[in-house]
Write a structure and sequence with these properties.
The protein is α/β, with parallel strands linked by helices. It is built from 9 helices and 15 strands. It is globular. The structure holds NADP nicotinamide-adenine-dinucleotide phosphate. Residues 40-41, 129-130, 133, 153-154, 156-160, 177-179, 182, 197, 215-218, 237-238, 262-264, 303, 306-308 line the site of NADP nicotinamide-adenine-dinucleotide phosphate.
Amino acid sequence: MKAITYDRYGGPEVIQIQEQPQPKIQADQVLIRTHYLSINPYDWHYMRGKPYFMRLEHGLRKPKHTILGNDIYGVITEVGKQVNDLQIGDRVMAAAKLGGFAEYAAVAASRVIRVPEGLDGPNAAALVMAGVTAHAGVHEFGRVKQADRVLINGASGGVGHLAIQMAHATGANVTGICSRKNSAWVKSLGADEVIDYTQTNVSSLEDQFDVIIDVNGNLTLATYKQLLRKGGRVAVVGYNGMPDMMKKMWHQRFGSMDLKVVGVEENRSSMKPLVEMVEKGSITPHVSKIYSMEKFSEAIDHLEKGHAIGKLVVQIPVEGNTK
Ligand SMILES: NC(=O)c1ccc[n+]([C@@H]2O[C@H](COP(=O)([O-])OP(=O)(O)OC[C@H]3O[C@@H](n4cnc5c(N)ncnc54)[C@H](OP(=O)(O)O)[C@@H]3O)[C@@H](O)[C@H]2O)c1
């Protein structure tokens, strides 16, 4: 089978499309014929082996797992002996952790969920990690409720555009932060107000919020303090480098604000609310570009530049491929 591989850490130039043996499934796994994959910052962190501490687990000098990839959509072609709730032919989205970016992926059934008729392949792939993270930020960690004033920093990217819709669907008053080119679109997703970070210094705002969801991760603890209402909550999704991550983790443990560092596990139960929200019409993923498999390096380069709109998806060729 064809797979998106890398055998050394580095930029998009380390990516190769190579023939690899088709994976064999274990008893608790299913084999998925991948049709679409979506990329996340997670993937370029693995590609670069950065932050460096990842290498302790993933390979000090070179990656132990040479096929990238978490978010996939496809069709089940084989079912492990212990799996009794999925069938050959099911259209599914899945979180492969690593090894997903290939024509076939072996994934634990617990990390796979059936996709409803109304959700097409690119949108299903787009939802996996970004959707679970947005849901965790808005609902589990941010505990957003009706009429809360919510600030979402990094509103137009993969996680942000879904978080805006989720907070809006809860009945909150939502302010998004992004650049001017995306402001009208972020409003159309449900933001009541949009702040253009290229024109406004967020730390000088006089507004206050019940919940801050820092997706981009470039706001400081001092800015959170200034913008947070009494009794407010902060959900930290992204970071501005390792020292920033350490500071925010320290604050979570010992600090004065109700601050939670968002950690997620994509599995069937964390993906279920996403499928339900899509079925109810309260969220719609936005795929701004679909790349061919051969253009994967371009896609990951685009994402790494940090200004992708919604999600970037890559199509894996399949005979008679339909959405
Ligand atoms: N904690 C977790 O479990 C978890 C899971 C997934 C992702 N993450 C992290 O969450 C972060 C976002 O992920 P993503 O998938 O949404 O990334 P993404 O799709 O690359 O998001 C990029 C977005 O950030 C915005 N942006 C760029 N510079 C900005 C600035 N100075 N201020 C505010 N917004 C800015 C861009 O908007 P413009 O184009 O308008 O500039 C763009 O829409 C990453 O750091 C990722 O590692 C964490």
